[in-house]
Amino acid sequence: MINKIDKDQTRFRKIVRGKIREDLKKYISHGEMIARKGRNIVSIPMPQIEIPHFKYDHRQTGGVGQGEGDQGTPIGSEDGDGGPGEAGDAPGQHILEVDITLEELAKILGEELELPNIEPRGTKNIQAERDKYSSIRRSGPESLRHFKRTYRAALRRQITAGLYDPKRPMVLPIREDRRYRSWRTIAKPQSNAVIIYMMDVSGSMGGEQKEIVRIEAFWIDTWLRSQYKNLTTRYIVHDAAAHEVDEETFFKIRESGGTRISSAYSLCKKIIDAKFDPTEWNIYPFHFSDGDNWGSDDTERCVKILGEDLFPIVNMFCYGQVRSAYGSGKFIKDLQEHFEDEEALTTSEIESKDGIMDSIKTFLGKGK
Q1: Which residue of 70, 142, 153, 302 is 20 to 30 Å from 193, comparing CA positions?
Q2: Residue 126's closest CA among 54, 62, 196, 187?
Q3: Distance (Å, whole) CA 250 – CA 246
Q4: Helix (H) or strand (E) holding 133
């Protein structure tokens, strides 16, 4: 019975994975699951899946109109809590929320977008020891007993000794049949990575633009966490000046004013210098803006900071330009003009929520 349940659960998980892959673009663009995010899992609304349920045999129950009472006797109390009105004749929409781990979600994202696994850059890793259960012993604590291997050994012994009766398939392990999981300690590279999100919060960046950034950041986080065991995230907001903030403030802050992008890049470099040694960390700055900047002088400062200070020490620098009715959209063209052959720079134009999926593939598709 347990094996059958396990098989049914495995089959159900495959169905869920297939539905998620089928509608992945919808989930990414709508951001439905982000609001249902837990610590290590997300709940995904899936109205397409029929919920299994028990159905009782009507022949063994009384049914409607088959109990005690005379014809015409009202069923239930007449002074119930139900309000006036007629019963509806349309079926309701049944939505099943399915929990899925972030690890599974990252795997689906990687398969669907054909994302390569990331190779940590340079020597940015530390050695971590962990125990790996990789063999079987004849002795050990009962908590590590391997039941399948134990019964296999007992069955082999009984067959060899002629004690096994197929008509009465009883297998009784004895002490010498017991098998236990065994482990060995291995040294495994433990890569460190930091994501530094920067977002323009000037007057031209509205709620829709910030929502796009929020959704894209969730998926970027999900993928990078599947690639690195130790991932840290920092947040910078900027208009004419830049400030480091926490995650909640980053996505909810409302500001106005002009834009000096160089202030964010300068603060990004300052944070890296203070906390994240490039020889020990894989560094991923992501900057989102609508492309407005305060004149060519500040753009030149940005180009200098990027070329001299950031590109040499980061895995890649990603710039996502979110379309806005009030933004000029010029900054991405300036970057492409100055760094046409720069491998560390990846740029993406995000027209709307429907463009988030393509933007993610552009940013993460290089495997850096």
Answers
A1: 302
A2: 187
A3: 6
A4: strand 125-137
Query: CATH 3.40.50.410 occupies which residues in the chain?
Result: 192-364
Alpha helices (runs of H) in 69-195, residue ranges in sequence order: 102-113, 147-160
H-state helical runs in the chain: 2-22, 24-30, 102-113, 147-160, 207-227, 247-252, 261-275, 295-305, 331-338, 356-364
Between CA 114 and CA 117, with CA 116 as vertex, the angle to 5 degrees is 135
User: Which pLDDT does position 118 carry in this prediction?
Assistant: 75
Q: What digits encode the pLDDT tens for the residues 6-33?
A: 565 566 566 666 666 666 667 677 665 5
Whether 162 has a pLDDT exceeding 70, the answer reads: yes
Among 22-31, 66-75, 150-159, 184-193, whose mean pLDDT is lowest?
Answer: 66-75
Burial of 239 (0-12, 13-18, 19+ CB in 10 A): buried
In this prediction, residues 171-197 reach a mean pLDDT of 80
> Model's pTM, two decimal places?
0.64
Does the CA dihedral 289-290-291-295 come out positive or negative?
A: negative
Instruction: Give the pairing type, strands 96-101 and 125-137.
Output: unpaired
| Spatial separation of the C-alpha atoms in residues 346 and 315, rounded to whole Å | 11
pLDDT one-digit tens code per residue, 209-260: 888 998 898 888 888 888 887 789 999 999 989 999 998 888 888 767 788 9
Contact 189, 298 (CB under 8 A): no
What angle do helix axes 207-227 and 356-364 make, rounded to 10 degrees? 40
